[in-house]
Amino acid sequence: MSPNDTSKSANAQWGGRFSGGPAEVMEKINASIDFDQRLFTQDIAGSRAHADMLVAQGILSLKDGKAINDGLDTISRELEDGKFEFSQALEDIHMNIEVRLHDLIGEPAGRLHTARSRNDQVATDFRLWVRDAADSIDAQLHDLQAALIARAEQHADLLMPGFTHLQTAQPVTFGHHLLAYVEMFGRDRGRFADCRQRLNESPLGAGALAGTSFPIDRQQTAAALGFDRPMANSLDAVADRDFALEFLAATAIAMTHISRISEEIVIWCSDGFGFVRLSDAYTTGSSMMPQKRNPDAAELSRAKAGRVFGDLLTLLTVMKGLPLTYSKDMQEDKEPVFDAADSLALALAATTGMVGDLEPMPDAMRAAATKGYPTATDLADWLVSVAGLPFREAHHVTGEIVKAAESRGVLLDQFPVADMQAIDERITEDVLSVLSIDAALARRTSEGGTAPDNVRAAVVAARQRFLET
Ligand code: ARG
User: Fold this and answer.
1) Ligand 1: which of 328, 332, 333, 338 to mutate, most ligand atoms within 8 Å of CB?
2) What CA–CA distance (Å, rounded) separates 28 from 433?
3) Is the CB of residue 331 below 6 angstroms from any atom belonging to ligand 1?
4) Strand partners, 170
5) For residues 181 and 306, what is the distance between their CA atoms, to the nearest angstrom?
6) Is the Cβ–Cβ distance between 345 and 138 less than 8 Å?
7) CB neighbours (10 Å) of residue 395?
8) Which of 68, 117, 324, 407 is the most exposed place for a label (fewest CB within 10 A)?
9) Element (DSSP H or E) covering residue 359
10) Number of alpha carbons in the 13 Å side-chain half-sphere of residue 457
11) What percent helix, strand, coil does the chain show, rounded to 5?
């Protein structure tokens, strides 16, 4: 390609001021049709709302309005059937559709762009797209929560070690652990709902940047497109992309949650842990090692967080230095948003599938929960509440008992009470009632705690809060 090739003719949409066409490389760098064709549904909806409003305001004749709507029907079908021919020379989805409309209906097509610019057009299309994406992500997050809650109910009293620093800390239940993610995904839904609510204002009618001299009705187009109201400032309407940034930020945070549960699934499936098994549906084999069952879906869901963070950083960086209002830089807003939405959708579907698929291994969980003196806190708590020691002193005494038990290679509930009394004479036989891991679990009855009865109640509450609204 020669960078100076200007053999093309001037663009039909603004050719008046131009005598030559773009260099090939100009056309290539300028075109967004390869990706913004995903906005076609929204673009057609925006054009219909605009045309209807122009007719209602007497700016466009009823006849032309009808011709435009009929032409858009045909184009819509062509696009849905994959029969529409996209042209790079026509840059983007807006001009591809407008030119096709002209092929179909002739002169009235040229009247559709009255009182409109691609600047308010693309801002409208993109808001509508992000709004739809937020709705479909919400539905997927709901489904993931439903899967987690169902498994939590099933395993409300399944004992497993809870970790801090990935060291055994205190026993918890598997159900309680899964419900922790239900809360995180619930907040993610809240973030998408906030984003959706804030973005739901119409840029249409802002024109290129300053508004228009035509007597348009922005309330009408806003209502027709399901927006709550028109955006208040025409400059802001065409220049802002914070709705896309907010969507990306919510997506990135949701991906951290996906990534963490995926990481846990990878760890749980490993031979060292063996806490869960994934079926053949969610594992892959190795081309060399016949014994392998690799949790690739979890690994890829974990990895997709990385690209989504990149998407957020991409758009933050594109936007940060732009003077008001529109600059072509902003055409780069779409790919990161599409990529992030696609990545999250895929990772959510895979994670929901794995949550339904995984089979917990109670023996391995119990064996691991028994190691590492997970009831030491219960011993210290007993020294405080029954023997009356200050917590710091109880902590110290317990530490000595754990050290002694460890050196003999026995668990706390196997360590003779007489030997504990040698360390602190205030200890009585009653201490045995708190030293087993099952007892420790059952005693965590404080609000939000892991006692199986609490978890069963939390399942009911989670269902009400997240699934029945
Ligand atoms: N394809 C363009 C975009 O995505 C549409 C807006 C073009 N506006 C302009 N003034 N050249 O941003």
Assistant:
1) 328
2) 75
3) yes
4) 162
5) 20
6) no
7) 16
8) 407
9) strand 359-360
10) 10
11) 65, 5, 30
CA 72 to chain centre: 33
446 CB-near residues (< 8 Å, 6+ apart): none
- Using DSSP's 3-state secondary structure scheme, residue 360 falls into strand
3 state DSSP class of 159: strand
Rounded Cα distance, 163 and 179, in Å: 16
pLDDT tens per residue, the chain (469 residues)? 444 444 567 776 767 778 788 899 999 999 999 999 999 999 999 999 999 999 999 999 999 999 999 999 999 999 999 999 999 999 999 999 999 999 999 999 999 999 999 999 999 999 999 999 999 999 999 999 999 999 999 999 999 999 999 999 999 999 999 999 999 999 999 999 999 999 999 999 999 999 999 999 999 999 999 999 999 999 999 999 999 999 999 999 999 999 999 999 999 999 999 999 999 999 888 777 777 789 999 999 999 999 999 999 999 999 999 999 999 999 999 999 999 999 999 999 999 999 999 999 999 999 999 988 889 999 999 999 999 999 999 999 999 999 999 999 999 989 999 999 999 999 999 999 899 999 999 999 999 999 999 999 999 999 999 999 7
Question: Terminus-to-terminus CA distance in the chain, angstroms?
Answer: 58
Helices (DSSP H) in 232-287: which residue ranges? 234-239, 242-269
Q: Which atom of ligand 1 is nearest to the CA of 32?
A: 1
Mutate to test the pocket of ligand 1, among 96, 125, 331 (most ligand atoms within 8 A of CB): 331
- Residue 92 near ligand 1, beta carbon < 6 Å: yes
Going from the Cα of 330 to the center of ligand 1, the distance in angstroms, rounded, reads 8
Exposed/middle/buried for residue 389 (C-beta within 10 Å: 0-12, 13-18, 19+): buried
What is the CA(328)–ligand 1 centre distance, in A? 6
Q: Give the separation between CA 191 and CA 246, rounded to whole angstroms.
A: 9
Report which DSSP code applies to 429. Answer: G
Distance CA 418, CA 52 (A): 89
Residue 163, H or E segment:
strand 159-164
3-state secondary structure of 161: strand
Which tokens sit at 461? 């509450």
Say if residue 312 is exposed, middle or buried (CB neighbours under 10 Å; 0-12, 13-18, 19+).
Answer: buried
Nearest to 157 by CA among 413, 448, 412, 450: 450
Nearest residue (CA) to ligand 1, atom 2? 331
Q: Cis (ω within 30 of 0) for the bond into 325?
A: yes
DSSP 8-state code for residue 447: T
